Amino acid sequence: MAWARGQEPQTITQLSENVNSPEPKARRAALKALASRGPEALEPLSLLVADPERDIRSSSIEAILAIYVEPPPRERVSSAEDAFGWTRYRTTPWSVPPVLTPNLIRALSDDWPSVRRDAAYGLGVVLTPPIDARVADELIYSLADPDSSVRLAAARSLGRLRATRAGDHLIGRIVDTELPVRLAAMRSIGEVREARALAALQLQLEYYRGGIAGRAALEALARIADKSSAELFAKEKFSKSEAHRQYAYEGIARIGGIPGGDAVAMEQLLTDERDEAVATAMAFALAMGGRPFVERVVLALADHDTANQAMEYVVEVGVAQPGVLIPYLRHTDPIVRERVATAMGFVGEAAAEPALSQLTSDGDPSVRRAAQAALIRMRTIKQGATHQ
C-alpha cells in the first residue's frame, strides 16, 4: 500500500512485495511509487509488464522507458512513442532485468493494440544492438500486425536495433497500405543497410520524386551507401530540393567522402550553400574524405536546428577516425562537451575513457550525465564483445 503522510517511503523490497499482491489497487500504488525510483526500480517494474490489468501493463512500460530515457529540457516521457522518438542518443543503457525482455516479447501478442505497440517501442529503447535472433523474429512477426501503429513501431524498432535478418520483411513493408509504415520501413532498410533493397528504393525515388516517399527512399539509399549509388548521389547533390542535396552528400560521405581532387571546388560550394542542414552534410562529406572539417561538423551539435543530424555524423566520423573527437571533450561550450561525450559512448573508443571520467565531475550537470551514460554504454559494449 502507499505510505501515509509523515511515514518513511517504502523500500524497493516492500514495493516489490506489493507488485505481487493479488489486489490491483496495491499493484497500482506500487507502480506509482516505483516510477519515481530510478534504475533500482527496473526489476519490479518489469514484472508489471505482464500484469493481468491492461492499464498496469501499459503504465509499467511507460515508467520503464522514462527511466531509460532522459527527455529534452522541459519535456517528459508521456508515451512509449515519445521515449522512442528521443532515443537513441538520450538513452542510458541500464542493465536489462532478466524478466523484462521476455515480458515485452509476450506483450507483442497482447489483446490490446496499444500494449503491442508500446512493447515494440519498448524493445527498441531498452535493448542494444546486436540483438538475439529470437527477439528480432518476434518483432518481424509484428510487421504483419493488423494494427498499423504496431507495424509502425515494429518497423522503427527493427531499424534502431540493426536487425539485419529483417531485411526482406522490411522490403515487403515498402508497399504497406499506410504511408507512415512505408516511410519507417524505408528508413529501417537504410539503418540495417539492406543492399537487396536498392532496386525497390530507386523505384520509389523515381515514382515519388518530389514527395515524402521519394525523400525517404533517397535517405535510405544514402544510409546503405552502396558504391553503385555513387552516380545517383553525384547527380542529386545539385537538386533543387534541400533534402535531396543533404542525403546526396550523406551518401557521398559514407561511400568514402569527397575525393581530394574535388575538395577545393566542394569547399567553395559549401561557402555558398544557404541551407544549414545541407552545409552540415557537405562538411560531413569533406571530413570523411580526410579534409579538415571535423570541427565544422562538431560545432553543428550546438545548433538546435542541426544537432540531431550532426550527432549521427559525429558518431560516424569518430568511428572512422579514431581519436579525432577526444579534444572536443574539453571544449569551452558545455553543449559541445555534452554531445561529444554522448557520441563517444556510441563510438566506444577506449582512449576516451580518462577524459570521460573527468567529465563526470564537470560543472555542468548535463555534461556529467552524458559522460556517465557514455561510460556505462562503453562498458556494455565491452561486455557484449566479451560474451560473443
Structure at a glance:
It is built from 22 helices and no strands. It is an all-alpha fold and about 400 residues long.
Q: Total number of β-strand segments? A: 0
What is the molecular shape? Answer: globular
Structural class: mainly alpha
For the record, the count of structural domains works out to 4
Largest sheet: none
In percent, how much strand structure appears in the residues?
Answer: under 5%
Q: Give the termini distance in whole angstroms.
A: 43 Å
Mean pLDDT: 93
* Series of H and E elements: HHHHHHHHHHHHHHHHHHHHHH
Topology:
Elements: H1 12-19, H2 24-34, H3 42-48, H4 54-68, H5 80-86, H6 100-107, H7 113-126, H8 133-142, H9 148-160, H10 167-172, H11 179-191, H12 198-207, H13 212-224, H14 230-236, H15 242-255, H16 260-272, H17 276-288, H18 294-299, H19 307-320, H20 334-347, H21 353-359, H22 365-387
Helix pairs in contact: 1-2, 1-3, 2-4, 3-4, 4-7, 5-7, 6-7, 7-9, 8-9, 9-11, 11-13, 12-13, 13-15, 14-15, 15-17, 16-17, 17-19, 19-20, 20-22, 21-22
